[in-house]
Amino acid sequence: MEMVEGVCKSCGREHHCGVKEVLVEAGALRKLPALLDEAGAKKPFLVMDENTKTAAGNEVMDILCSAHIPFVTYCFPTREIINPTEESVGKVMMSYDPSCDCALAIGSGVINDITKFISRVSGKPYILTLTAPSMDGILSPTSSMDSNGVKVSLPSALAWGAVADLDVLCDAPKHMLAAGAGDMIAKYISICEWRISNLITGEYYCPDIAAMMEKAARSVTSCSSELMSGDKKAIKEVTEGLILAGSAMAYAGCTRPASGMEHYISHLMDMRKLSLGKATDLHGIQVGTGTLVAMKLYDEVRKIPSIDTAGAKAYAQSFDYGAWADRLRSLLGSSAEILIATEKKEGKYDAARQAVRVERIAAVWPQILSIINESLPDTQTIQTMLRELGIPQTLEDYDIRKEDIPDLIKATKDIRDKYVGTRLLWDIGKLDEVVGKL
Questions:
Q1: Contact 214, 258 (CB under 8 A)
Q2: What is the pTM of this model?
Q3: Closest residue by Cα to residue 117 from 77, 84, 80, 83
């Protein structure tokens, strides 16, 4: 970890993660008994699926048996991607043994999200055993779940510790390695938008956390070609970056250091496919594509020399939210209703509030352009990286109709009350124009 817990000299807040032990090394699984003992755990509850059981679960069970540590196991009986729904959580909860004093997640994505949520509900600590460096929420205090067809981040438990055995991770499927790298390059966008939001809305921002994530993103970008060949050093870089991202969210007390507009593109893809009953791709794969879309959007923002405040205010006053809500329903089906209901509480489209923001934006526009230029790499660099990783470069590659893509991009401003690129463009009256060019 590059952050020192305690009061931050840069932002004045106290940063605290709470994760006691993180092991990223070859043969780390063999240290599980000692780690459980250190955590005071005598009988863990193991959560896995058939894939993660093969990857590490069988070895973990053998290690626990050899150490004479009793355990209870729930294994999802499938090799298909598990959706993080109420049903999935319920299946694990119904199998939970209250005599267990610790949960042990064997898996990096959905398995981890479900286990950390159950840890919060049960009040028992949990330890994570990674099987692939595939996503960034490894040590975050939230779980990304599907609730009534909408992607939500639910408060969850922080891991007591995490074990990342490089011998296991090097055998992870290439698609999952690519997903981890895709999730890491997203940090360029998330940090850029965090800085912009701080400048416009006064949202809390920590330069130290931002610098930590930018450094991790650059490290992953520089080793992407080696990653797909199974290079252990590259896999270690990605794994540590993903772990750091979760820690950064815990330090900041929000998801800002790790997700922005690019994540919302992935969330909307998930929501749309859920409404159509279609399968989704891995989160990090979709986020990688979303990052390229966001990069292209910011390339267009760079071309805007100044802000027409009168035109922007007229744009907001003429905005027909009822018509837009109908387009959300057409795009997302019943999932759109939650976004529409949320807007009634948040008032993101309130013209009076927009008028205040656009005056501020006009005053600091040169600084906003500087932030974009400082924070974001060259778009061609990201395109090349995605090509090396085998990540799709267009949303059409995900079986999304070309005519639906503009609305999907615009809808990123509707997911949550987080100031992202599409909200900036709506505020300055340029959203339709810029998205139309992508």
A1: no
A2: 0.89
A3: 84
